[in-house]
Amino acid sequence: MSDYTISLVPSVSRYAFAEIAVDDILKWLVSKDIVKAELSECTLGNLGYAFSDGAQYIV
């Protein structure tokens, strides 16, 4: 576990279909092997999505 975190947040504070947008973004991140599909305790006390092997290619 690390002592830092990266959060992705939208630049627009409201979307008409926020849940759909979040689901689509998560599906894309998982399909590119950037994050793992299952929730983990990787965010120091909250549930989140851990980085996967493909994340090294986009950083």
Q: Would you kindly provide a written description of the structure presented here, covering whatever features stand out?
A:
The chain is an alpha+beta fold and 59 residues long. It is built from one helix and two strands; from the N terminus they run αββ. Strands 1-2 form a two-stranded antiparallel sheet. A hairpin with a 7-residue loop joins strand 1 and strand 2. The protein is globular and about 35 Å long. The two termini are 18 Å apart. The mean pLDDT is 81.
Notable features of this structure?
single chain; alpha+beta; globular; two-stranded antiparallel ribbon; 59 residues; 1 helix
Helix percent band: 10-25%
Q: Gap between N and C termini, in Å?
A: 18 Å
Low-confidence stretches: none
Percent of residues in beta strands? Answer: 15-25%
Secondary-structure element string:
HEE
Summarize the structure.
This protein has 59 residues and is α+β, with helices and mostly antiparallel strands. Helix content is 24%, strand content 17%. Strand 1 (35-40) and strand 2 form a beta hairpin.
SSE arrangement:
Layout (H helix, E strand, L loop, with lengths): L17 H14 L3 E6 L7 E4 L8
Antiparallel strand pairs: 1-2
